[in-house]
Design goal:
single chain; alpha/beta; six-stranded parallel sheet; 35 helices
Length: 716
């Protein structure tokens, strides 16, 4: 009797073809057995009635180590890894006359079986299997006595098996000696520290071993050892990519601890190098994840937002040079431009303005109210939070990066379909905040519509300006000169010939709402700080000022207005909050500090504040300070460290006598200007007069009218 062993790596597309073949084999008296990688009862129930069908053991059944091996293997090799440890397969392969691979996934398995059990014919497909059976049926005597050359496995298989066993043993030893359990032993850690720096070790092996060992050290809590080993190994590496891959987990671990990693940019350069490699192969899809990873590291909140300074603020050109000099950076910086220049609206109909709203409208209120009330202006709002718009924004940053690297994308077509009619209607589009809305808008050609984007402080320290095609923006608005300086240095495209015109226009603030008499003369001893919800506000600096004042006069107190810092946002904020709370505990107990929390009536909360503070590390303008000054409080402004010493800073934005460098200088200014009620009130009136005549909406609205209602000047 002829026996056939079939192997199936995938579910057949037409089960009827298989069952028809099995019926033909049965009619010829052939015994057929089928080994599958899937549940045969569920997927091919009809076949189970015509042949003995067997499910190969799963990775779970064969243990976790074997499961990892199967997972790492190629799809064509996985069935063989399961079959070679299966007694059922070995038993029936030894007896089989014909071995059949029914699909491409089973080819490697049947080839391996044929090398071990050489008396059988090995074929691919049902038709060749039927022919092999017919041939054996026609000449049974020929196959009755096996030839010597078909007895036992081939020498190649014996050599391969020996080599495989040796490799498997080496892998097991390596995995054990570099695993988490081994890394708990200091002698093992010491051994690998030397091993990864041994001369003569090929770079690919050095990098792989170092990544494995340092990763195990990190998982067992030996971060310092992991960092020492990684740094020692990378000193002998030449590939930027390998260095970045090795140091990546170290950098991630330090960020998770709230530290700015020393070797952050090594990992960034490695990721950009990988992206560049894929771009050279014209594969932007595989390049995009590496660009996103680089962005996540460069603009991580620990790096840019939750510390006393940021590398971008210190030297934007140097910090961003790896991005700008990479193939990926150049691809994203490629200007797509527009087919037609923006046109000023024709006479005889209202000026049509489209405002993007919904993501953050905090600074748009007075602007929208003014132009919606003008008969010569027609205003529409495109709410980006509407359900019909949200699908276009989904996974937005990833889609924008894919689009910029490839130069085109399906998502751009979806944006055109969703926003195109709005752009076709509008003469002018105003996008407040250079974030997702601005980036996605510039994926498409705006036609003859004028595009204006306002860029605030937050976005300047984010990836969004680098994901915006500025050749499709006509005007960009900043609220201060120092912010414009930073953005122009960080984003060279803003300075390019095809870049937008730039303007400095202050925020729209209705400062007259804050004018109110102080509740008493003693208000001059109350310092006010409005807004505490970000580490950049640095309320501990205000406490340092308060302590300096109370050393001289205990009547001074501090009023904190706004939400507290959320320690869950990052480890750096959590550490800051612990120190802040420790300082506040004593001061609050003595009545020196009062926390009011969030309020909807900020003008009312300021009526007992005699001195308004700006203690921030960075600000683009600081509306809360100016609002406090409008209330008659004496302004005291820290020389914001992110911008201190530059051509433009807090000292160029505000009157020079408002700005101080240290808590001691702040205390001296406060003591001098609150020495008497008359001096204090006069200083408050002067400050209020300055801000009302300079920054009140009644003044700054003229700047917006010139920007929005007058034909643009040719020079930016």
């Amino acid at each position: 009797m002829i026996e056939v062993l079939m192997v199936m790596g995938t579910v057949p597309g037409r089960v009827a073809v298989l069952t028809d073949a099995l019926e033909q084999f049965r009619a010829k008296g052939v015994t057929v057995r089928v080994a599958t990688t899937f549940d045969p009862v569920e997927k091919i129930p009809a076949a189970t009635e015509l042949a003995e069908v067997h499910l190969l053991p799963t990775s779970t059944e064969l243990g976790p180590r074997f499961g990892r091996m199967v997972k790492r293997a190629s799809p064509a090799r996985r069935p063989w890894l399961r079959a070679q440890r299966d007694p059922w397969v070995r038993r029936h392969a030894k007896r089989a006359d014909v071995l059949v691979a029914l699909d491409a996934q089973a080819l490697h398995t049947v080839w391996q079986l044929a090398q071990r059990y050489r008396r059988a014919d090995a074929v691919y497909g049902i038709a060749p299997a039927l022919r092999a059976v017919e041939k054996r049926s026609a000449e049974p005597a020929r196959y009755r006595r096996p030839r010597l050359t078909t007895v036992g496995p081939s020498p190649a298989v014996l050599a391969s098996a020996t080599r495989s066993q040796t490799v498997d043993l080496a892998k097991r030893v390596f995995e054990m000696s570099t695993g988490k359990r081994a890394m708990k032993l200091s002698p093992v850690r010491w051994f690998w520290q030397g091993a990864v720096t041994a001369p003569g070790l090929p770079e690919r092996h050095r990098g792989k071993i170092a990544r494995r060992v340092s990763g195990s050290m990190l998982k067992t809590g030996h971060g310092a050892s992991a960092k020492r080993l990684a740094l020692a190994a990378q000193g002998r590496l030449t590939s930027a990519t390998t260095k970045g891959q090795l140091l990546g987990p170290i950098v991630d671990a330090e960020l998770s601890q709230g530290k700015v990693p020393e070797h952050l940019m090594t990992v960034v350069r490695g990721q950009l190098k990988l992206a560049d490699g894929f771009l050279k192969k014209r594969n932007p899809g595989k390049a995009a994840p590496h660009v996103l990873r680089a962005f996540n590291l460069m603009f991580h909140r620990i790096v840019q937002f939750d510390g006393p300074t940021s590398p971008l603020a210190e030297d934007p050109e140097k910090f961003l040079a790896p991005l700008h000099n990479s193939e990926a950076g150049r691809a994203m910086a490629t200007p797509r431009g527009r087919q037609s220049q923006a046109e000023f609206p024709p006479a005889g109909r209202p000026h049509r303005m489209l405002f993007f709203t919904g993501l953050n409208d905090n600074f748009l209120g007075p602007i929208l109210e003014r132009y919606e009330a003008m008969p010569e202006v027609e205003v529409r709002r495109l709410n980006l939070m509407e359900e019909s718009i949200l699908p276009v924004l989904s996974n937005g940053r990833t889609n924008v990066v894919h689009h910029m690297l490839a130069g085109t994308s399906k998502r751009a077509g979806e944006v055109q379909e969703a926003w195109g009619p709005h752009l076709a209607w509008a003469d002018t589009v105003f996008v407040d905040w250079c974030n997702l809305g601005a980036a996605m808008l510039t994926m498409i050609d705006p036609g003859t519509t004028r595009v204006i984007v306002r860029l605030h402080s937050f976005e300047a320290f984010s990836w969004w300006p680098h994901l915006t095609d500025w050749s499709r923006v006509d005007d960009v608005v900043f609220v201060s000169e120092h912010l414009r300086d930073l953005a122009l240095a960080a984003v060279p495209r803003l300075r390019a010939p095809q870049g937008p015109r730039t303007h400095m226009i202050s925020n729209a603030m209705e400062l007259h709402r804050y004018v109110a008499p102080k509740v008493s003369a003693d208000s001059r001893f109350t310092l006010g700080l409005v807004g505490l919800s970000s580490l950049a506000k640095d309320p501990r600096w205000a406490l340092a000022v308060l302590r300096e004042l109370r050393r001289r006069d205990e009547r001074y107190r501090l009023k904190l207005i706004g939400d507290d810092l959320n320690p869950e946002l990052s480890p750096a904020i959590a550490a800051y909050v612990r120190e802040l709370d420790a300082e506040l505990a004593e001061l609050e107990a003595s009545g020196a500090v009062v926390r009011t929390g969030r309020t909807d009536d900020v003008p009312g909360a300021l009526t007992d504040v005699g001195v308004i503070l700006s203690t921030s590390l960075r600000e683009s303008f600081h509306c809360a300070l100016v609002e406090g000054a409008a209330s008659g409080a004496v302004p005291v402004v820290r020389d914001w460290p992110f911008f201190a010493g530059r051509a433009h800073s807090a000292r160029s934005l505000f009157p020079s006598d408002w700005v101080v460098g240290t808590p001691e200088e702040a205390a001296e200014r406060i003591l001098a200007l609150t020495a008497s009620e008359e001096v204090w009130r006069e200083a408050g009136r002067a400050a209020a007069s300055h801000v009302l005549s300079t920054w009140d909406w009644s003044v700054t609205q003229k700047d917006f009218d010139r920007l929005l209602l007058e034909p643009p000047a040719t020079a930016g």
